[in-house]
Design a protein that fits this description.
Blueprint lengths: L6 E5 L10 H4 L6 E2 L2 E2 H11 L4 E6 L4 H7 L8 E6 L6 H6 L9 E4 L3 E4 L3 H12 L3 E8 L6 E5 L6 E9 L3 H4 L8 E10 L3 H7 L10 H10 L4 E5 L3 E4 L3 H12 L4 H21 L3
Parallel strand pairs: 1-4, 1-6, 4-5, 8-12
Antiparallel strand pairs: 2-3, 6-11, 7-13, 8-11, 9-10, 9-11, 10-12
Protein backbone atom coordinates (compact mmCIF):
# COMPACT_ATOMS: atom_id res chain seq x y z
CA UNK A 1 0.00 0.00 0.00
CA UNK A 2 1.41 3.39 -1.01
CA UNK A 3 2.28 5.90 1.67
CA UNK A 4 -0.41 8.59 2.14
CA UNK A 5 -2.82 6.60 -0.04
CA UNK A 6 -6.40 6.78 1.20
CA UNK A 7 -8.36 3.56 0.85
CA UNK A 8 -11.97 2.58 1.36
CA UNK A 9 -13.46 0.10 3.81
CA UNK A 10 -17.06 -1.04 3.37
CA UNK A 11 -18.63 -3.15 6.12
CA UNK A 12 -21.25 -5.29 4.35
CA UNK A 13 -21.65 -8.34 6.57
CA UNK A 14 -24.91 -7.49 8.34
CA UNK A 15 -27.95 -9.76 8.30
CA UNK A 16 -30.52 -7.18 7.19
CA UNK A 17 -33.40 -8.46 9.32
CA UNK A 18 -35.25 -5.14 8.98
CA UNK A 19 -35.51 -5.75 5.24
CA UNK A 20 -37.12 -9.19 5.41
CA UNK A 21 -38.31 -11.05 3.40
CA UNK A 22 -35.94 -9.63 0.73
CA UNK A 23 -32.82 -10.03 2.89
CA UNK A 24 -33.64 -13.65 3.71
CA UNK A 25 -32.62 -14.58 0.16
CA UNK A 26 -30.42 -11.70 -1.02
CA UNK A 27 -27.95 -9.47 0.89
CA UNK A 28 -29.60 -6.16 1.77
CA UNK A 29 -26.71 -4.35 0.06
CA UNK A 30 -27.97 -5.88 -3.20
CA UNK A 31 -31.31 -4.07 -3.06
CA UNK A 32 -31.65 -2.22 -6.40
CA UNK A 33 -32.08 1.54 -6.35
CA UNK A 34 -32.50 2.95 -9.88
CA UNK A 35 -31.17 -0.24 -11.41
CA UNK A 36 -28.04 -0.31 -9.25
CA UNK A 37 -27.49 -2.35 -6.12
CA UNK A 38 -27.02 -0.15 -3.07
CA UNK A 39 -23.46 -1.47 -2.78
CA UNK A 40 -22.71 -0.05 -6.24
CA UNK A 41 -23.92 3.38 -5.12
CA UNK A 42 -21.57 3.00 -2.14
CA UNK A 43 -18.64 2.23 -4.45
CA UNK A 44 -19.52 5.26 -6.57
CA UNK A 45 -19.40 7.48 -3.46
CA UNK A 46 -15.88 6.30 -2.68
CA UNK A 47 -14.78 6.60 -6.29
CA UNK A 48 -16.10 10.19 -6.40
CA UNK A 49 -13.82 10.87 -3.42
CA UNK A 50 -10.80 9.75 -5.44
CA UNK A 51 -10.57 6.29 -3.84
CA UNK A 52 -9.68 3.40 -6.11
CA UNK A 53 -8.76 0.66 -3.61
CA UNK A 54 -11.64 -0.71 -1.53
CA UNK A 55 -11.73 -3.43 1.12
CA UNK A 56 -15.15 -5.03 1.48
CA UNK A 57 -15.98 -6.74 4.80
CA UNK A 58 -18.31 -9.63 4.03
CA UNK A 59 -19.69 -12.64 5.85
CA UNK A 60 -22.21 -15.42 5.65
CA UNK A 61 -24.53 -15.36 2.58
CA UNK A 62 -22.64 -12.54 0.84
CA UNK A 63 -21.71 -14.52 -2.29
CA UNK A 64 -24.17 -12.59 -4.45
CA UNK A 65 -22.50 -9.31 -3.44
CA UNK A 66 -19.07 -10.67 -4.37
CA UNK A 67 -20.41 -11.95 -7.71
CA UNK A 68 -21.88 -8.51 -8.41
CA UNK A 69 -18.73 -6.48 -7.71
CA UNK A 70 -16.09 -9.04 -8.64
CA UNK A 71 -12.65 -7.44 -8.44
CA UNK A 72 -14.20 -4.01 -9.00
CA UNK A 73 -12.69 -3.48 -12.44
CA UNK A 74 -16.05 -3.02 -14.18
CA UNK A 75 -16.77 -0.17 -11.78
CA UNK A 76 -13.36 1.50 -12.10
CA UNK A 77 -11.97 0.42 -8.72
CA UNK A 78 -10.00 -2.43 -7.13
CA UNK A 79 -11.98 -4.49 -4.63
CA UNK A 80 -10.59 -7.00 -2.13
CA UNK A 81 -12.62 -8.95 0.43
CA UNK A 82 -12.12 -9.38 4.16
CA UNK A 83 -14.24 -12.08 5.81
CA UNK A 84 -15.95 -11.50 9.16
CA UNK A 85 -16.49 -14.90 10.75
CA UNK A 86 -18.99 -13.65 13.34
CA UNK A 87 -21.32 -10.67 13.36
CA UNK A 88 -20.21 -8.75 16.44
CA UNK A 89 -21.00 -5.15 15.61
CA UNK A 90 -19.59 -2.42 13.40
CA UNK A 91 -16.46 -1.94 15.49
CA UNK A 92 -15.67 -5.63 15.16
CA UNK A 93 -16.27 -5.50 11.39
CA UNK A 94 -13.83 -2.60 10.98
CA UNK A 95 -11.28 -4.37 13.18
CA UNK A 96 -11.14 -7.27 10.71
CA UNK A 97 -9.17 -5.02 8.34
CA UNK A 98 -6.39 -4.25 10.85
CA UNK A 99 -3.84 -6.48 9.08
CA UNK A 100 -4.66 -5.03 5.66
CA UNK A 101 -4.87 -1.29 6.24
CA UNK A 102 -1.97 0.85 7.47
CA UNK A 103 -3.03 4.22 6.09
CA UNK A 104 -5.94 6.68 6.28
CA UNK A 105 -9.18 4.97 5.35
CA UNK A 106 -12.76 5.98 4.62
CA UNK A 107 -15.39 3.68 6.11
CA UNK A 108 -18.76 3.80 4.39
CA UNK A 109 -21.54 1.41 5.37
CA UNK A 110 -22.61 -0.88 2.57
CA UNK A 111 -26.31 -0.10 3.11
CA UNK A 112 -25.95 3.70 3.17
CA UNK A 113 -27.22 5.89 0.37
CA UNK A 114 -25.65 9.35 0.20
CA UNK A 115 -26.37 11.99 -2.44
CA UNK A 116 -24.75 13.89 -4.00
CA UNK A 117 -21.77 11.61 -4.34
CA UNK A 118 -19.17 14.36 -3.89
CA UNK A 119 -19.87 14.61 -0.15
CA UNK A 120 -17.16 12.03 0.61
CA UNK A 121 -14.65 14.17 -1.26
CA UNK A 122 -15.43 17.07 1.08
CA UNK A 123 -15.09 14.77 4.11
CA UNK A 124 -11.65 13.65 2.90
CA UNK A 125 -10.53 17.24 2.29
CA UNK A 126 -11.51 18.32 5.80
CA UNK A 127 -9.85 15.31 7.45
CA UNK A 128 -6.64 15.75 5.43
CA UNK A 129 -6.38 19.41 6.45
CA UNK A 130 -7.04 18.86 10.16
CA UNK A 131 -5.41 15.43 10.64
CA UNK A 132 -7.47 14.12 13.60
CA UNK A 133 -7.79 10.45 14.52
CA UNK A 134 -11.30 10.40 13.04
CA UNK A 135 -13.76 12.58 11.15
CA UNK A 136 -17.45 11.65 11.19
CA UNK A 137 -20.07 12.51 8.59
CA UNK A 138 -23.20 13.78 10.33
CA UNK A 139 -26.71 14.83 9.39
CA UNK A 140 -29.40 16.77 11.24
CA UNK A 141 -32.45 14.89 12.51
CA UNK A 142 -35.49 15.98 14.50
CA UNK A 143 -36.09 12.56 16.07
CA UNK A 144 -32.93 10.93 17.49
CA UNK A 145 -34.46 7.48 18.02
CA UNK A 146 -32.31 4.68 16.61
CA UNK A 147 -29.30 6.86 15.73
CA UNK A 148 -25.80 7.27 17.08
CA UNK A 149 -25.47 10.93 18.12
CA UNK A 150 -22.61 13.41 18.26
CA UNK A 151 -22.23 16.62 20.23
CA UNK A 152 -20.10 19.31 18.61
CA UNK A 153 -18.26 22.27 20.10
CA UNK A 154 -17.81 25.63 18.37
CA UNK A 155 -19.18 24.42 15.05
CA UNK A 156 -18.54 26.80 12.16
CA UNK A 157 -19.68 26.29 8.59
CA UNK A 158 -21.11 22.85 9.30
CA UNK A 159 -17.91 21.44 10.80
CA UNK A 160 -16.07 21.33 14.08
CA UNK A 161 -14.66 19.26 16.96
CA UNK A 162 -16.79 16.53 18.51
CA UNK A 163 -16.79 16.36 22.30
CA UNK A 164 -19.11 13.40 22.84
CA UNK A 165 -20.75 10.52 20.98
CA UNK A 166 -23.40 8.03 22.05
CA UNK A 167 -24.79 4.95 20.28
CA UNK A 168 -28.61 4.93 20.19
CA UNK A 169 -29.23 6.82 23.45
CA UNK A 170 -32.57 6.85 25.26
CA UNK A 171 -34.69 9.98 24.77
CA UNK A 172 -33.55 11.15 28.20
CA UNK A 173 -29.88 10.69 27.28
CA UNK A 174 -30.42 12.27 23.87
CA UNK A 175 -31.52 15.55 25.46
CA UNK A 176 -27.85 16.31 26.21
CA UNK A 177 -27.12 16.19 22.48
CA UNK A 178 -29.87 18.54 21.34
CA UNK A 179 -28.63 21.51 19.32
CA UNK A 180 -30.55 24.15 17.40
CA UNK A 181 -33.83 22.29 17.72
CA UNK A 182 -32.44 19.00 16.44
CA UNK A 183 -29.70 16.43 16.77
CA UNK A 184 -26.54 15.54 14.85
CA UNK A 185 -26.66 11.87 13.95
CA UNK A 186 -23.97 9.68 12.41
CA UNK A 187 -24.80 8.58 8.88
CA UNK A 188 -22.42 5.72 8.22
CA UNK A 189 -19.50 7.73 6.84
CA UNK A 190 -16.21 7.91 8.75
CA UNK A 191 -12.56 8.63 8.08
CA UNK A 192 -10.06 6.97 10.39
CA UNK A 193 -6.34 6.84 10.91
CA UNK A 194 -4.95 3.33 11.57
CA UNK A 195 -4.64 4.28 15.25
CA UNK A 196 -8.36 3.58 15.64
CA UNK A 197 -7.63 -0.16 15.61
CA UNK A 198 -5.94 -0.09 19.02
CA UNK A 199 -9.00 1.60 20.54
CA UNK A 200 -11.36 -0.93 18.97
CA UNK A 201 -9.22 -3.69 20.48
CA UNK A 202 -9.62 -2.12 23.91
CA UNK A 203 -13.38 -1.58 23.57
CA UNK A 204 -15.57 -3.85 25.67
CA UNK A 205 -18.54 -5.54 24.00
CA UNK A 206 -21.92 -3.95 24.70
CA UNK A 207 -25.44 -5.18 24.03
CA UNK A 208 -25.69 -8.57 22.34
CA UNK A 209 -21.92 -8.92 22.73
CA UNK A 210 -21.30 -6.39 19.94
CA UNK A 211 -18.36 -4.00 19.71
CA UNK A 212 -19.67 -0.61 18.63
CA UNK A 213 -17.43 1.81 16.75
CA UNK A 214 -19.12 4.63 18.71
CA UNK A 215 -17.74 3.16 21.95
CA UNK A 216 -14.26 2.91 20.43
CA UNK A 217 -14.45 6.57 19.34
CA UNK A 218 -15.53 7.56 22.88
CA UNK A 219 -12.57 5.67 24.32
CA UNK A 220 -10.23 7.44 21.89
CA UNK A 221 -11.57 10.86 22.89
CA UNK A 222 -11.16 10.06 26.59
CA UNK A 223 -7.54 9.19 25.75
CA UNK A 224 -7.01 12.67 24.27
CA UNK A 225 -7.55 11.94 20.58
CA UNK A 226 -9.14 14.57 18.34
CA UNK A 227 -12.38 13.67 16.56
CA UNK A 228 -14.11 16.05 14.16
CA UNK A 229 -17.54 16.21 12.56
CA UNK A 230 -18.75 17.42 9.17
CA UNK A 231 -22.45 17.97 8.53
CA UNK A 232 -23.81 16.47 5.33
CA UNK A 233 -25.11 19.07 2.87
CA UNK A 234 -26.98 16.53 0.76
CA UNK A 235 -29.15 13.58 1.75
CA UNK A 236 -28.57 10.37 3.65
CA UNK A 237 -30.93 7.41 3.71
CA UNK A 238 -30.53 4.14 5.59
CA UNK A 239 -31.37 1.37 3.12
CA UNK A 240 -32.08 -0.98 5.98
CA UNK A 241 -35.76 -0.20 6.47
CA UNK A 242 -38.69 -0.59 4.09
CA UNK A 243 -39.86 2.92 4.93
CA UNK A 244 -36.62 4.58 3.83
CA UNK A 245 -36.08 2.24 0.86
CA UNK A 246 -39.46 3.01 -0.69
CA UNK A 247 -39.18 6.72 0.13
CA UNK A 248 -35.80 6.84 -1.61
CA UNK A 249 -37.11 5.18 -4.75
CA UNK A 250 -40.11 7.49 -4.99
CA UNK A 251 -38.03 10.62 -4.51
CA UNK A 252 -35.22 9.72 -6.91
CA UNK A 253 -37.49 8.61 -9.72
CA UNK A 254 -38.77 12.17 -9.97
CA UNK A 255 -35.29 13.44 -10.93
CA UNK A 256 -34.15 10.51 -13.07
CA UNK A 257 -32.96 11.02 -16.65
CA UNK A 258 -34.41 7.70 -17.75
CA UNK A 259 -32.70 7.37 -21.13
CA UNK A 260 -29.26 8.31 -19.82
CA UNK A 261 -29.64 5.87 -16.95
CA UNK A 262 -30.77 3.04 -19.26
CA UNK A 263 -27.82 3.70 -21.61
CA UNK A 264 -25.39 3.57 -18.68
CA UNK A 265 -26.77 0.22 -17.49
CA UNK A 266 -26.77 -1.25 -21.00
CA UNK A 267 -23.14 -0.22 -21.62
CA UNK A 268 -22.04 -1.95 -18.43
CA UNK A 269 -24.11 -5.04 -19.29
CA UNK A 270 -22.45 -5.34 -22.72
CA UNK A 271 -18.97 -4.96 -21.24
CA UNK A 272 -19.67 -7.75 -18.77
CA UNK A 273 -21.09 -10.03 -21.44
CA UNK A 274 -18.04 -9.51 -23.65
CA UNK A 275 -15.76 -10.38 -20.75
CA UNK A 276 -17.74 -13.53 -20.03
CA UNK A 277 -17.51 -14.61 -23.66
CA UNK A 278 -13.78 -13.94 -23.63
CA UNK A 279 -13.42 -16.12 -20.54
CA UNK A 280 -15.51 -18.87 -22.14
CA UNK A 281 -18.37 -18.65 -19.68
Amino acid sequence: MMKDEIVGLVPAAGSGTRLYPFARAVPKEMYPILGKAVIEHCVENLKAGGISKIFMVVGYQKGALMDYLGDGSFFGVNVAYVYQMERKGLGHAIYQARNWIDTTFVTLLGDSFIEPKNEIKELIRYHSEQKPLATLLLFKVENPKGYGLAKLRDMEGGMGPIIRVKEKPTMSQASEFKSGGGYYAMCGGYIFEPGIFKYIKRTKPGKKGEIQITDAISLAMRSGERVLGLVLKGKYLDIGKWKTVLHTEKELLGFLDMQMHISDRERLMKRMKRQEEKNGR
